[in-house]
Amino acid sequence: MTTPPIASELDLCLCHSCGLACDITHDPHECERCGAPLHRRKTDSLTRTWAFLLASLIFYVPANLLPVMNTTMLGSGSESTIMGGVLEFWQHGAWDIALIIFIASIAVPGIKFVALTMLLVTVQRGSSWALKERSKLYRFVELIGYWSMLDVIVVALVAALVKFQALGDIEPRQGILFFGLVVVFTMLSAMSFDPRLIWDKQDKARNNPPNEEVMDEVASH
């Protein structure tokens, strides 16, 4: 059975800006529609992905240990970390806000750390395990990355509501800055990863099929 040609065999390259399939042999190597530079692969994909991921892990520690906001209600003030804020909102009956902060600040970064680490390790080991599922996992990581700033938005909205009611005051603390850096670096890490690396081993096997002598020897055994 003949297999259809792949994009590299047809000298086609997908523009990373607008998604147009372009001829990579044209000079200059720019997208015909949007003018963005074209390249077959993301440069130093694994190195940059690891660097951004490790940076985000480093910033994730102070983001959870340092307070993210200072709440002053009726003259008494207290500082809260991310988990402290989740528990505080939950105890005051705002379970919806607590759930949003927990998902955006604890669950989403944890999922991205685990998923990106697994993708990097399996690619570096040349694994052919669950190729389609790993590709879908990468697209899922890209999707949830856009919702990672919900925690920062919630803190800003709560601060505005408290100030509007004139019952107290909420001020952001340094922890929110570190969490913002975590979000930025995890998004950069996901953007730096080249999902085509997942399929490299299969493409090599396709381009270098075993010769007839090897097949006959295998069949004889």
UniProtKB/TrEMBL annotation:
It comes from the Bacteria. Pfam families: PqiA. Its main location: membrane. InterPro entries: PqiA-like, PqiA-PqiB_transport. The chain crosses the membrane at residues 50-69, 97-123, 144-164, 176-193. It is found in: Cell inner membrane. The keyword DNA damage does not apply. One of its GO terms (cellular component) is plasma membrane. Keywords: Cell inner membrane, Cell membrane, Membrane, Transmembrane, Transmembrane helix. This is Paraquat-inducible protein A.
